[in-house]
Amino acid sequence: MRIVLVGPPGAGKGTQAALLAERLGIPHISTGDLFRANVSQGTDLGKQVDAILREGGLVPDEITVAMAADRMAQPDAEDGFLLDGFPRNIAQAKSLDALLAESGQRLDAVLDLEVPEDEVVRRIAGRRTCRKDSSHTFHVQNKPPREPDVCDICGGELYQREDDREETVRKRLAVYHEETEPIIGYYSEQGLVSTISALAPVPEVTRRALAVLPERAA
Asked: Could you tell me which residue ranges the Adenylate kinase active site lid domain spans (predicted)?
């Protein structure tokens, strides 16, 4: 099964992608992971990405598509994959269609995780991260620390990352609406989109996603 997962920042795509991929027995392919893997392995594409990111630039579509194509060609993706963060725009969506068509394949489903904008801001702006260990995260409402601004695990200071601030989140949302959201319309014309409310506990959102897949599978 070949699936694209789309949704705004804060919709829980990473969490759902990992859970769905495990349940379906297909690899979770994240553009962020692809960038990091290619950079750490020192591939030609990785060197280009590293140089671009160091200068604060955006990775060009052709490099992103090339990395995704290479990953989708790996043996573990022969029977399907779940794409997270790719395609990011209409141009990438068309490139993906062309790549799949070359091997006689097509997407089976596009899962659109829907979350109201104010909820996205609440989720992200409420996050607090430990300065000692960034894997320790809390939320001022959903998962507050026992002591304000102190990590329950190691006692480190909790702080709000710059990219978690409300003004930054709203800028990220504006970019999503302008660049990525149009792919939902693009794939809707192909009859591939299922919109799933992500306003529920993680297991329930996963259940909702799995429930629509049999109807969409090729």
From this structure: 127-163
